[in-house]
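User: Okay, second chain of the day. Same drill as before: sequence in, C-alpha coordinates out.
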Amino acid sequence: MADDEPKKEEVAAEGAEAAEAAEGGDDNELAKEEETGGEWAPLVQLEEVKVKTGEDEEDVVFKMRAKLFRFDKALNQWKERGTGDVKFLQHKTTQKIRLLMRREKTLKICANHVLNTAMTLRENAGSDRSWVWLANDYAEGESSVDMLAIRFANSENALKFKEEFEKAAKANGELSGAAAPAPTPTTEVLLSSSFSVLLCFLKPPLPLYIICIQILHMKRNIFI
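Assistant: Same drill. C-alpha coordinates below.
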Protein backbone atom coordinates (compact mmCIF):
# COMPACT_ATOMS: atom_id res chain seq x y z
CA MET A 1 0.00 0.00 0.00
CA ALA A 2 2.89 2.33 0.81
CA ASP A 3 4.33 1.74 -2.63
CA ASP A 4 1.04 2.58 -4.37
CA GLU A 5 0.76 6.05 -2.81
CA PRO A 6 3.87 7.58 -4.58
CA LYS A 7 2.58 6.21 -7.93
CA LYS A 8 -0.79 7.91 -7.42
CA GLU A 9 0.94 11.20 -6.59
CA GLU A 10 3.06 10.97 -9.81
CA VAL A 11 -0.03 10.33 -11.93
CA ALA A 12 -1.81 13.29 -10.33
CA ALA A 13 1.20 15.58 -10.97
CA GLU A 14 1.40 14.56 -14.65
CA GLY A 15 -2.31 15.24 -15.07
CA ALA A 16 -1.94 18.71 -13.57
CA GLU A 17 0.98 19.57 -15.94
CA ALA A 18 -1.04 18.43 -18.96
CA ALA A 19 -4.01 20.57 -17.93
CA GLU A 20 -1.76 23.60 -17.42
CA ALA A 21 -0.17 23.14 -20.85
CA ALA A 22 -3.58 22.91 -22.50
CA GLU A 23 -4.83 26.09 -20.85
CA GLY A 24 -1.92 28.49 -20.88
CA GLY A 25 0.79 26.85 -22.98
CA ASP A 26 4.50 26.77 -22.26
CA ASP A 27 5.99 29.94 -20.78
CA ASN A 28 9.13 29.35 -22.89
CA GLU A 29 7.24 29.48 -26.22
CA LEU A 30 7.78 32.56 -28.43
CA ALA A 31 4.95 35.06 -28.35
CA LYS A 32 3.15 35.69 -31.62
CA GLU A 33 4.22 38.83 -33.47
CA GLU A 34 1.76 41.66 -33.37
CA GLU A 35 1.21 44.03 -36.27
CA THR A 36 1.79 47.60 -35.18
CA GLY A 37 0.42 49.17 -38.34
CA GLY A 38 3.02 51.94 -38.13
CA GLU A 39 4.78 53.51 -41.13
CA TRP A 40 8.51 54.04 -41.12
CA ALA A 41 10.09 56.73 -43.29
CA PRO A 42 13.58 56.07 -44.75
CA LEU A 43 16.42 57.99 -43.11
CA VAL A 44 17.88 58.99 -46.50
CA GLN A 45 15.87 59.98 -49.56
CA LEU A 46 17.54 58.80 -52.78
CA GLU A 47 16.58 60.57 -55.96
CA GLU A 48 16.56 58.79 -59.30
CA VAL A 49 19.43 59.96 -61.51
CA LYS A 50 18.87 59.84 -65.24
CA VAL A 51 21.98 59.16 -67.31
CA LYS A 52 22.00 60.64 -70.80
CA THR A 53 23.44 58.29 -73.38
CA GLY A 54 22.36 60.24 -76.44
CA GLU A 55 20.33 57.28 -77.63
CA ASP A 56 17.09 58.95 -76.56
CA GLU A 57 17.59 61.36 -79.46
CA GLU A 58 17.92 58.53 -81.96
CA ASP A 59 15.75 55.85 -83.53
CA VAL A 60 16.89 52.24 -83.81
CA VAL A 61 16.79 51.27 -87.49
CA PHE A 62 18.61 47.95 -87.07
CA LYS A 63 19.58 45.68 -84.17
CA MET A 64 21.15 42.24 -84.08
CA ARG A 65 23.15 40.18 -81.60
CA ALA A 66 26.80 39.64 -82.51
CA LYS A 67 30.36 39.35 -81.21
CA LEU A 68 32.91 42.07 -81.94
CA PHE A 69 36.70 41.88 -82.27
CA ARG A 70 39.45 44.49 -82.72
CA PHE A 71 42.90 43.85 -84.15
CA ASP A 72 45.56 44.79 -81.62
CA LYS A 73 48.62 45.94 -83.58
CA ALA A 74 50.85 45.95 -80.50
CA LEU A 75 50.06 42.35 -79.60
CA ASN A 76 49.69 41.30 -83.25
CA GLN A 77 46.43 39.46 -82.65
CA TRP A 78 42.65 39.82 -82.59
CA LYS A 79 41.16 40.76 -79.23
CA GLU A 80 37.53 40.21 -78.32
CA ARG A 81 35.72 43.44 -77.51
CA GLY A 82 32.44 41.96 -76.38
CA THR A 83 29.13 40.31 -77.17
CA GLY A 84 25.87 42.21 -77.40
CA ASP A 85 23.45 43.98 -79.73
CA VAL A 86 24.97 45.89 -82.62
CA LYS A 87 22.63 48.77 -83.52
CA PHE A 88 22.28 51.34 -86.26
CA LEU A 89 20.92 54.53 -84.69
CA GLN A 90 19.50 57.41 -86.74
CA HIS A 91 19.51 60.86 -85.19
CA LYS A 92 16.06 62.43 -85.17
CA THR A 93 17.36 65.85 -86.22
CA THR A 94 20.43 65.33 -88.40
CA GLN A 95 19.26 61.97 -89.79
CA LYS A 96 22.84 60.71 -89.52
CA ILE A 97 23.22 57.00 -88.80
CA ARG A 98 25.90 55.61 -86.52
CA LEU A 99 26.90 52.11 -85.48
CA LEU A 100 26.74 51.52 -81.75
CA MET A 101 27.47 48.33 -79.87
CA ARG A 102 27.47 47.78 -76.11
CA ARG A 103 28.64 44.79 -74.13
CA GLU A 104 25.74 42.91 -72.59
CA LYS A 105 25.29 43.22 -68.82
CA THR A 106 27.91 45.98 -68.36
CA LEU A 107 26.57 48.07 -71.29
CA LYS A 108 30.08 49.40 -71.90
CA ILE A 109 30.54 50.73 -75.44
CA CYS A 110 32.71 48.53 -77.65
CA ALA A 111 32.02 50.21 -81.02
CA ASN A 112 30.80 53.70 -81.87
CA HIS A 113 31.26 55.38 -85.24
CA VAL A 114 29.30 57.05 -88.01
CA LEU A 115 28.88 54.97 -91.16
CA ASN A 116 30.08 56.28 -94.51
CA THR A 117 30.55 55.01 -98.04
CA ALA A 118 34.32 54.75 -97.62
CA MET A 119 33.81 51.79 -95.28
CA THR A 120 33.78 48.46 -97.07
CA LEU A 121 32.88 45.15 -95.46
CA ARG A 122 35.16 42.27 -96.42
CA GLU A 123 34.75 38.59 -95.66
CA ASN A 124 36.98 37.56 -92.81
CA ALA A 125 39.20 34.71 -93.99
CA GLY A 126 36.45 33.39 -96.24
CA SER A 127 33.82 33.10 -93.49
CA ASP A 128 30.20 33.61 -94.53
CA ARG A 129 29.17 34.92 -91.11
CA SER A 130 31.95 37.36 -90.29
CA TRP A 131 32.95 40.77 -91.69
CA VAL A 132 36.03 42.98 -91.37
CA TRP A 133 36.18 46.74 -91.88
CA LEU A 134 38.26 49.79 -90.98
CA ALA A 135 36.68 52.65 -89.02
CA ASN A 136 37.41 55.86 -87.14
CA ASP A 137 35.95 54.52 -83.92
CA TYR A 138 35.09 56.42 -80.73
CA ALA A 139 34.46 53.51 -78.38
CA GLU A 140 37.13 54.77 -75.97
CA GLY A 141 35.98 58.39 -76.17
CA GLU A 142 38.67 59.47 -78.64
CA SER A 143 39.04 58.87 -82.37
CA SER A 144 41.03 55.77 -83.21
CA VAL A 145 41.54 54.07 -86.57
CA ASP A 146 40.70 50.46 -85.76
CA MET A 147 40.30 47.31 -87.75
CA LEU A 148 37.11 45.68 -86.51
CA ALA A 149 35.63 42.26 -87.13
CA ILE A 150 32.12 41.15 -86.31
CA ARG A 151 30.73 37.61 -86.16
CA PHE A 152 27.09 36.52 -86.30
CA ALA A 153 25.27 33.31 -85.42
CA ASN A 154 24.67 32.40 -89.07
CA SER A 155 25.21 33.56 -92.64
CA GLU A 156 21.65 34.93 -92.93
CA ASN A 157 22.25 37.37 -90.08
CA ALA A 158 25.61 38.34 -91.56
CA LEU A 159 24.04 39.14 -94.95
CA LYS A 160 21.28 41.17 -93.32
CA PHE A 161 23.89 43.18 -91.42
CA LYS A 162 25.81 43.85 -94.63
CA GLU A 163 22.67 45.05 -96.41
CA GLU A 164 21.73 47.43 -93.61
CA PHE A 165 25.35 48.58 -93.20
CA GLU A 166 25.64 49.57 -96.86
CA LYS A 167 22.16 51.12 -96.88
CA ALA A 168 23.00 53.29 -93.87
CA ALA A 169 26.39 54.29 -95.30
CA LYS A 170 24.72 55.34 -98.56
CA ALA A 171 22.08 57.36 -96.70
CA ASN A 172 24.78 59.21 -94.77
CA GLY A 173 26.66 59.88 -97.99
CA GLU A 174 23.58 61.45 -99.56
CA LEU A 175 23.12 63.67 -96.52
CA SER A 176 26.68 64.98 -96.63
CA GLY A 177 26.67 65.34 -100.41
CA ALA A 178 30.18 63.98 -100.72
CA ALA A 179 32.00 60.80 -99.97
CA ALA A 180 33.79 60.76 -96.66
CA PRO A 181 37.55 60.07 -96.68
CA ALA A 182 38.50 56.53 -95.88
CA PRO A 183 40.30 55.74 -92.64
CA THR A 184 44.03 55.42 -93.30
CA PRO A 185 46.07 52.89 -91.34
CA THR A 186 49.42 54.26 -90.23
CA THR A 187 51.37 51.04 -90.68
CA GLU A 188 50.96 47.63 -92.21
CA VAL A 189 49.43 45.22 -89.73
CA LEU A 190 51.44 42.05 -89.30
CA LEU A 191 48.87 39.33 -88.98
CA SER A 192 50.95 36.43 -87.69
CA SER A 193 54.53 35.58 -86.86
CA SER A 194 55.16 34.18 -90.34
CA PHE A 195 52.52 35.54 -92.72
CA SER A 196 50.86 38.82 -93.55
CA VAL A 197 48.69 39.83 -96.46
CA LEU A 198 48.28 43.41 -97.60
CA LEU A 199 45.18 43.88 -99.75
CA CYS A 200 44.61 47.11 -101.62
CA PHE A 201 41.17 48.01 -102.92
CA LEU A 202 40.43 50.74 -105.45
CA LYS A 203 36.82 51.91 -105.48
CA PRO A 204 36.31 54.75 -107.99
CA PRO A 205 35.67 57.59 -107.59
CA LEU A 206 37.02 57.20 -104.07
CA PRO A 207 40.78 57.61 -103.48
CA LEU A 208 43.02 54.61 -103.09
CA TYR A 209 42.99 53.26 -99.58
CA ILE A 210 44.49 50.27 -97.87
CA ILE A 211 42.79 47.68 -95.78
CA CYS A 212 44.89 45.05 -94.05
CA ILE A 213 43.02 41.90 -93.15
CA GLN A 214 44.12 38.59 -91.81
CA ILE A 215 43.89 35.54 -94.07
CA LEU A 216 46.72 33.35 -92.87
CA HIS A 217 47.16 33.36 -89.13
CA MET A 218 48.14 31.20 -86.23
CA LYS A 219 45.60 29.20 -84.27
CA ARG A 220 45.69 31.70 -81.41
CA ASN A 221 44.32 34.35 -83.74
CA ILE A 222 41.48 32.28 -85.19
CA PHE A 223 38.00 33.35 -84.07
CA ILE A 224 35.85 32.39 -87.05
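The first strand starts at residue 58 and ends at 72.

User: Thanks, on to the next one.
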